[in-house]
Amino acid sequence: MEILKGIPVSPGVYIGEAFLSEGEDVRIPMRTVAPEAVAAEVKRFEDACLKVSSDLDTLRGVTESQLGSNIAGILSVQTQLLRDPSLRQKINVRISEQKHTAEYAVAKTLRELAKLMGSSANQLIKERSSDIVDLEKRVLAELLGEHKEDLAHLKRPVALIAHDLGPSQTAALDRTKVKAFATDVGGRTSHTSILARALQIPAVVGLETISADITGGETIIIDGNRGIVILRPDERTLARYRKLQAEFEDFERKLIQDKDLPAVTRDGVEVRVMANIEFPEEVGDAIEKYSAAGVGLFRTEFLYLKSGVMPSEQDHYEAYRWTLQRLGGRPLVIRTFDLGADKIDPAYAISEHNPFLGLRSIRVSMKRPENFRLQVRAILRASALGKVRLLLPMISCVEELRWARGVVEEIKAELLESKTSFDERIEVGIMIEVPAAAMQIRTLARECDFLSIGTNDLIQYTLAVDRGNEHVAHLFTPSHPAILALVSMVVEAGREANVPVAMCGEMAGDPIYVPLLVGMGLTELSVTPKLVPEVKTIVRAAPLETFRALAGEAMKMVEVAEIADFLREKLDELLPPGSKFGGMG
Ligand code: PEP
Ligand code: MG
Predict the structure, then answer these.
(1) Whose CB has fewer CB within 10 Å in the chain, the N or C terminal residue?
(2) Do residue 140 and residue 167 come from a single domain?
(3) Together in a domain, 221 and 238
């Protein structure tokens, strides 16, 4: 049994089989063979070794003539390893004594060795560990031949384990098979983590080495509440986690019981608790199961990322029409494409040194306006069917807002001309996720109809902390006084300009910040659907005055930890401990 600690990004507990993502590895289930089949299994392994070693010899000859002896030397190391009698002996013992299949014995032995070498203080030995990984792949490919299992053909539920998962890969996951995931890299507000919450599957990221620590087919526990992953759990641990799993499901049921109670403070001030969605299909649960007041952020770029095909105007329109139908008169905030940075199909990514500071979001729309124009047209047409608001992402200066509003006006004129109906008073809002926009908020607020604070990017750009980087995940926090100051500035400017201010970043759904945000004066919070009932419960826990006093106190503090501890304590006073999902701290 081995316990790893990572970053919890999507709640729930998974207990079951691990599946290594393609690209990392082939899946090797832990299987045994009958005693009478052991001799044949040993022979299979020996034959595979012979074949791989002869392939390596051939390859080395070719490599040497083309690339020189240094590069070819790397292959000799693998051949030597393969011919090493003690290594072969170890694998043979596993097959003959433990009755493991040849594949499992190879994967297990070579992975243990790679891990041991990888953690060596000697740089030379450390570097050799990648030779072992490579060798493992060669021998397994030989043993498995055509029998490699891939995710697309799996028939049973698994937890997906990968070094990294991009948002487009995550969006395409089949939820009937992938019941949880765990990755080496990532942060709490990376788009992949946001998608895990949208898919409602437990997930832990930033585990650093999990893709090398586990062999496919082994049993794994993924605790998305605490960020713990347990490899090869023993019986006692399994029993304990089965209990925790049942308790968590019970807790979720209890939260849902109160879902229809209104989101008003104890003295009757309403806070609209809305849902963030990435796929139209999420709207059903958001409204019926979690009782959201509407959709406060539709990340439409996933219409493209999930299918890999750029949607036509009609595709956009149909998605919005479908969503509005299910919303039954509740509001829908449609954000125009926020493509670029990590939200791009890797095959189409342009080469940029700093993609998050590069051609992203509204900048892509300005560079290639065709897709923006057709999306705006679809949004305007959909506005005839329900309460639609149009939201522009990543605005950093007034020129971008003016450009986008100009396009909206042009398309309105075209629609009038062609007698196509739309809401002539459709509200156009902007996301505040770049510090420059927060600094210029008074000007921007005068030129738009609503503001929505995107803290995921606002934190990343203000604190200079990559939201998807596990190495600096501890520095990514809404509790920084600079973040509190920027949020407060935006709320203040909205009040002055009489423009509503919402928050749709992950901070809005993190329980410890809800009292602070309500106290600061935010009246709309848009969160992952599953978190809606809990956020509503917190809003109901005290009168506005209590929240205001708490916000006032927090705003005077100067240290991150001081603010986070204070907010955690206050939340515990408002809600009984043990009755909430984990926050990001
Ligand atoms: C944000 O940045 O807070 C936000 C809501 O946008 P996204 O997470 O899609 O970048
Ligand atoms: Mg953003």
Answers:
(1) N
(2) no
(3) yes
- 354 CA to centre of ligand 1 in angstroms: 18
Q: What does the DSSP assignment read for 149-209?
A: --GGG--S-EEEEES---HHHHHT--TTTEEEEEESS--TTSHHHHHHHHHT--EEE--SS
Query: What Å distances lie between residue 544 and 69, 270, 415, CA to CA?
Result: 74, 10, 44
Q: How far apart (Å, rounded) are the C-alpha atoms in residues 500 and 519?
A: 15
- Tell how far the Cα of 476 is from the centroid of ligand 1, in angstroms: 14
What does the alpha-carbon distance between residue 49 and residue 46 come to, in Å, rounded to a whole number?
5
219 inside domain: yes
SS3 state at 101: coil
Nearest to 376 by CA among 388, 387, 360: 388
CA 572–ligand 2 middle distance (angstroms): 30
Structural tokens at position 557: 């503090």
Amino acid present at 537: T
- DSSP letter for each residue of 509-523: GSGGGHHHHHHHT--
pLDDT tens-place string over residues 383-396: 999 999 999 999 99
Query: CATH number of the domain that 347 lies in?
Result: 3.20.20.60
Q: Name the residue range of residue 71's domain.
A: 35-144
Catalytic option among 100, 163, 191, 480: 191
Domain end among 192, 213, 248: 248
Does residue 504's CB lie within 6 angstroms of at least one atom of ligand 1?
A: yes
Q: Which residues contact 250 (CB under 8 A, 6 or more apart)?
A: none
Burial pattern 348-364, b for ≥16 Cβ within 10 A else e, equals eeeeeeebbeebbbbbb
Model pLDDT for residues 69-117, shown as the tens digit of each residue: 666 677 777 888 888 889 999 999 999 999 999 988 998 898 888 888 8
Tens digits of residue pLDDT in 291-334 = 999 999 999 999 998 888 899 999 999 999 999 999 999 999 99
Q: Is the CB of 190 under 6 A from ligand 1?
A: no
Same domain, 222 and 113: no
**Of ligand 1's atoms, which has the minimum distance to the CA of residue 452?**
5
Does residue 170 have its Cβ closer than 6 Å to ligand 1? no
Q: Which residues pair with 452 in a beta bridge?
A: 431, 502
| HEC string for 476-512 | CCCCCHHHHHHHHHHHHHHHHHCCCEEECCHHHHCHH
Last residue of a domain, one of 123, 144, 165: 144
How many Å separate Cα 534 from the centre of its chain? Answer: 20
| Phi then psi dihedrals of residue 342, to 5 deg | -85, -20
CB 499 within 8 A of CB 483: no
The first and second tokens of residue 374, run together, are 């057709």
**Ligand 1 pocket, residue 343 CB under 6 Å:** no
> Beta strand pairing status for 158-162 and 501-503?
unpaired
CATH number at residue 80: 1.10.274.10
pLDDT digits (tens, 9 = 90+) for 161-208: 998 888 877 888 888 999 999 999 999 998 889 989 989 999 999 999
